[in-house]
Each structure stands twice: as C-alpha cells, then as structure tokens.
Amino acid sequence: MESINWRGVDLNLLIAFAALMETRSVTKAAEKLSIGQSAMSHNLSRLRTLINDPLFERRGHHMVATDKAKELAPVIEQVLQLITSEILQPKAFNPEADRSTIRIGLTDYAELLFAPVLFDAILSQAPNCQLSFHKVDRHNYQAMMEDQDIDLVIGSMNQLPRELDGQYLYTEDHVCLFDSQATGLSAPIDLARYIQTPQALVTPDGKLASAVDQQLRAQGVSRHVAVGSGNFLTIRHLLSGRNLLCVVSTLMARITLFNDDLTQCPPPVSIPDFDIRMIWRKRNASHPRLTWLRQCVGQTVKNQVTHLRQQPPPET
Fold first, then answer.
1. C-alpha to C-alpha distances, 54 to 40, 42, 110, nearest whole angstrom
2. Which residues contact 286 (CB under 8 A, 6 or more apart)?
3. Closest to 235 (Cα-Cα) out of 255, 216, 221
4. What pLDDT is attached to residue 54?
C-alpha cells in the first residue's frame, strides 16, 4: 500500500481506459467522453505510467490492447459498475430485506403513547429487522443518540443543537385527572378546589414543582404536591382510590391501558401547550433507511394522535 502512488490514481483514468477498450481509438474515446483528443492522450500516458504497461499500441487506425489491458478490462468494468450501483446510484432501500436494528429514543410520555403502534407499523414493513426502544429525556437525549446510536428520538425537545434536525409532529395540551369518589370532586373544578386537593406530579427530573407553582404564587396561592414520579404509569395507579389530583397531557389521559374510572376536565390554571417533535442526526439525514424510517414513524405518530383525539373522554 505504501509503495503505491495514490496521488496518481484518478477514477477518470479508469473511465478513460474503459472508453479506449470499447472504441480502440483515442479520437473516438475522446468523443465518447466529451473531452479533447489531447486530454485523452494525456490520460493514456498517465495510465501507462500508473500500470507500467503500454496498454494500447497503434496499428493503422486502431489501438490494439496488450495482454495486460485485456486482463485488467473485466476488473475495471466491475469496479466502475460497483461504484455506479453502490456509491453514485445506490439501490433504493428495501425495508422487507432489512435486517438491521432500529433504535428509537422515546420519553416516558412518547413510549406509552406510541411504542405499540410503532412496533406494528415498522415490523409490518420491515419484518426481519429488530426494534429497540430507549428511554430518553430532554436532558440526556443528545448523549444517548451518540452513545446508543439511536436513529430517531420522539419527545418535547426545543432549541436543537446544530448537529440535529427535527420535524414537528403535533401540539399537546393538558387536563386534570382524578378519582371523583376518592376526592369528592366533580368536573369542572375551580381554583379553590384545585389547590385544596393533594396533587401528584409527573416529574422526569425528580423536582416536586413546576411552572404551575410559579403561576400560583403570582396569584398569592399555592398547592400541595404530595407525590412525584418520573413514570406516568405509577402516577396513574396512584390516582385510583386516593385523594389525589394530577395534571397530565390530554392524550396520556385517553390511552386505554387502564380499567379505571378517572374523571378528566380542563385545569383551572393556564398551562402552556407543548410541541412534540421527531429528531435525528443531520449527518445521516439523506440515508435511504433513515428517510424511510422518518416517513413511517411520522405517519404512524400522526395516525395515533388522530385516533386518540377521537376517543371520547370519560363521562363527568
């Protein structure tokens, strides 16, 4: 490898060689490649130096290939075909033939809402692949994408770093969720009953306060957060049969994993909506596999959101 003059290796020389083999004429090869005859003669000279063989000898109006040229012809043709089909014009991605591992990063919220439908959609198109879900949050998703080689992330992440790109999927809002019998509450609830009821908090970072508490303090009131958990399933189980209230995203309240009888109603405080995005690394954005995956995941998420929003809330 070290003895090869790689600076003298030029893909155009292989193309020139193939044209000479086909036409057996410097003039016709130059016309075929739309270059000047002097440029083609220069390419032939460089080829002879690189290969250390005359390659072609003039006999009358034709160029006769040497034995070395004849040996190289099928190899060079194969190299050019490989470069064309695998690099310059790669085959379209075929999900049915894919056997890779697809890695998707999901927040706790996104995993509950979308993991089952993503499994169904992806495996229906790519039945031979493996699907791996990774739990991420807004603090660790960047590192997780690199460390775990995650293809896509779904969550509420804003202000993406320059090496990532994203696509808006939908906007989520909030409802109050509670057990009417255990709390004695009925919908709708006013601010007074809201702050008097012990509250549960979905808290990915472990903090037992949120922007709601700042808003309440501005109004001269406060609430009592009795329990917090980073897992929505835990909070949902706690709400049944207990004097607890929790503000959750509307779609989370509507998933049909539970046989509980919790009540939903609008919160009596203003809670900002949040956007859900799909995020990927820019350096892989044009890869056919990721292009297919983005289309599949994006459409599946939007279909699931539409389905959940069409579900009627529980009777209040």
1. 15, 13, 66
2. none
3. 255
4. 93
Task: Give the torsion sign (CA, 167, 104, 211, 190).
Answer: positive
Write b or e for each residue in 188-223: b if 16 or more Cβ atoms lie within 10 A of its Cβ, otherwise e: ebeeeebbebebbbbbbeeeeebebbeebeeeeeeb
Rounded Cα distance, 191 and 125, in Å? 49
Distant-in-sequence contacts of 232-235, Cβ < 8 A, 24+ apart: 232/108, 232/109, 232/112, 232/202, 233/112, 233/257, 235/200, 235/201, 235/202
- Domains assigned to the chain: 6-88 (1.10.10.10), 95-172+275-309 (3.40.190.10), 174-272 (3.40.190.10)
- pLDDT given for residue 83 in this prediction: 86
| Ranges under pLDDT 50 in the chain | 1, 316
What is the structure's pLDDT at 5? 66
For 91, 152, 186, 259, the CA distances from 298, given in Å and listed in that order, are 23, 10, 37, 29
